[in-house]
């Protein structure tokens, strides 16, 4: 007898789990399809292990900035054990048990649509009233001669690391490349970070990438920016990377962090009239991709962030449960857990110009707030804000410095709620905190 569910979720990442859990809690009969580990990329090969592996090096660096304090990474095996604890040892048993206890049926294997209300998993047909596609994304491998012969790492291999390579070339100067590069460097790996853009994090304000670039270079990371890798070749136990105009680099490991693409292959999308685009599945403001089909997470192209996927999951649940809730992406925080940390929200000045918005910007160095002095010597960072001159509200902001991923949320709320600049400028910020830098920057707008 064919199983029938109210909703089948294809994919168990952050968005898929958000949908499955909430709908099951609401009394719906839900199945979640997963061909790999239940939980998706974030808990095993992305967000969580990356932050766990970055943390020891961050602690050591922070200690060096404080007079009279010494710290060092003494036991690599304990670092690995810490990472394994955070990732549950790359074992999904706990997550499976948790969702099963909530009433979610886990279907193991590859799932694909077979017409409206039909999903095939490993040859078995399951019927449902609705389908949610939450298949995530996969790393993009650039077209480089010889790349397929040198066994390159992606974020997965980098997060599963058991031994630190002596040297590595990291292709990609975005968030993933920066985090992996700094992580490896702080464990003693000689790192060359190669990016095609002229600065790190080129989708953010220029000041952000410039400041972070100086910090990484000061740590001894070689930055090759505005560079093109033309070939990769195995040379015994090493890999030779050819960089146009910059000669060769011979390294033990080549890491590819040049972006991700939505995972839309072999999903039977044509059977429900969906044609994916370059950015994935087009969805409306209720995350509907077609009649009876919703999509969440990386596969929608709305930002490859765990928190966006979970947010979209809430939107989908509301729609399925008969509530009218519409997605609003104006205030999605973007973070890089480097040292210094980087965080941003809303538009950059360039994007505002493209949208035809007249803006005024202001930025202040982190040294204007006393908290930076108490954090030690050599603390670097800044805070910047971008305001709509007509609406007199913030449309963007950024933060660089210790804990920037935490204090960005003052700006996130300001952008989301359209808090007037006058109110922000009159805000009393706790002393001494880094959040004071945002208030100072708003006052510098002169509006």
What would you note in describing this structure?
With 447 residues, the protein is of the alpha/beta class. The chain is built from 15 helices and 22 strands. The chain folds into three domains: 143 residues, FAD/NAD(P)-binding domain; 112 residues, FAD/NAD(P)-binding domain; 112 residues, FAD/NAD-linked reductase, C-terminal dimerisation domain (Enolase-like, domain 1). Strands 1, 2, 3, 4, 5, 6, 16 and 17 form an eight-stranded mixed β-sheet that branches. The protein is globular, with a radius of gyration of 23 Å.
CATH superfamily of the largest domain: FAD/NAD(P)-binding domain
The overall pLDDT, averaged over residues, is 96
Low-confidence region ranges: none
Per DSSP, what share of the residues sits in E-state strands of 2 or more residues? 25-35%
Helix tally? 15
Tag the structure with descriptive keywords.
15 helices; five-stranded antiparallel beta sheet; 447 residues; FAD/NAD(P)-binding domain; 22 strands; globular; 3 domains; alpha/beta; eight-stranded mixed beta sheet; Enolase-like, domain 1
Short description:
This protein is of the alpha/beta class and 447 residues long. The chain has 15 helices and 22 strands.
Q: What is the secondary structure topology, with strand pairs?
A:
Layout: E1 4-10, H1 14-25, E2 30-34, H2 42-45, H3 47-65, H4 76-86, H5 93-101, E3 104-108, E4 111-113, E5 118-121, E6 124-133, E7 137-139, H6 155-159, E8 167-171, H7 175-186, E9 190-195, H8 206-218, E10 222-225, E11 229-235, E12 238-243, E13 247-251, E14 253-256, E15 260-262, E16 288-290, E17 293-295, H9 306-320, E18 333-336, E19 341-346, H10 349-354, E20 359-365, H11 371-374, E21 382-388, E22 393-401, H12 404-407, H13 409-417, H14 421-425, H15 436-444
Parallel strand pairs: 1-2, 1-6, 2-3, 6-17, 8-9, 8-14, 9-10
Antiparallel strand pairs: 4-5, 5-6, 7-15, 11-12, 12-13, 16-17, 18-19, 19-22, 20-21, 21-22
């Amino acid at each position: 007898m064919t199983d029938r569910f109210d909703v089948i979720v294809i994919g168990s990442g952050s968005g898929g789990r958000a949908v499955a859990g909430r709908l099951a809690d609401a009394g719906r009969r839900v199945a979640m399809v997963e061909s790999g580990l239940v939980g998706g990329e974030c808990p095993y090969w992305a967000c969580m292990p990356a932050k766990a592996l970055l943390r020891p090096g961050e602690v050591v660096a922070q200690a060096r900035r404080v007079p009279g304090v010494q710290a060092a990474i003494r036991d690599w095996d304990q670092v690995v054990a810490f990472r394994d604890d955070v990732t549950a040892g790359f074992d999904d048993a706990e997550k499976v048990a948790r969702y099963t206890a909530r009433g979610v049926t886990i279907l193991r294997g590859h799932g694909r649509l077979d017409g409206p209300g039909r999903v095939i998993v490993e040859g078995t047909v399951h019927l449902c009233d609705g389908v949610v596609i939450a298949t995530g994304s996969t790393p993009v491998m650039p077209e480089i001669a010889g790349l397929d012969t040198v066994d390159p790492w992606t974020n997965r291999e980098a997060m599963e690391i058991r031994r630190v390579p002596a040297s590595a070339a990291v292709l990609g100067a975005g968030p993933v490349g920066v985090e992996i590069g700094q992580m490896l460097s702080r464990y003693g790996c000689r790192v060359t970070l190669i990016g095609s853009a002229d600065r790190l994090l080129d989708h953010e304000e220029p000041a952000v990438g410039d400041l972070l670039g100086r910090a990484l270079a000061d740590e001894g990371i070689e930055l090759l920016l505005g560079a093109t890798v033309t070939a990769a070749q195995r040379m015994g136990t090493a890999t030779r990377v050819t960089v146009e105009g910059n000669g060769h680099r011979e390294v033990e490991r080549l890491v590819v962090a040049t972006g991700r693409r939505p995972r839309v292959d072999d999903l039977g999308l044509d059977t429900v009239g969906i044609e994916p685009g370059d950015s994935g599945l087009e969805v409306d403001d209720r995350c509907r991709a077609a009649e009876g089909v919703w999509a969440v997470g990386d596969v929608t192209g709305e930002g490859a962030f765990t928190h966006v996927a979970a947010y979209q999951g809430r939107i989908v649940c509301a729609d399925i449960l008969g509530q009218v809730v519409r997605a609003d992406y104006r205030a999605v925080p973007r973070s890089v857990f480097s040292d210094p940390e980087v965080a941003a929200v809303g538009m950059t000045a360039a994007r505002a110009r493209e949208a035809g918005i007249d803006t005024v910007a202001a930025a202040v160095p982190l040294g204007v707030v006393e908290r930076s002095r108490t954090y030690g010597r050599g603390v670097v960072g800044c805070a910047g804000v971008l305001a709509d001159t007509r609406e007199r509200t913030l449309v963007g902001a950024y933060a660089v410095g210790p804990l920037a991923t935490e204090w960005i949320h003052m700006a996130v709320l300001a952008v989301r709620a359209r808090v007037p600049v006058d109110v922000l400028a009159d805000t009393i910020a706790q002393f001494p905190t880094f959040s004071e830098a945002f208030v100072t920057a708003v006052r510098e707008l002169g509006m």
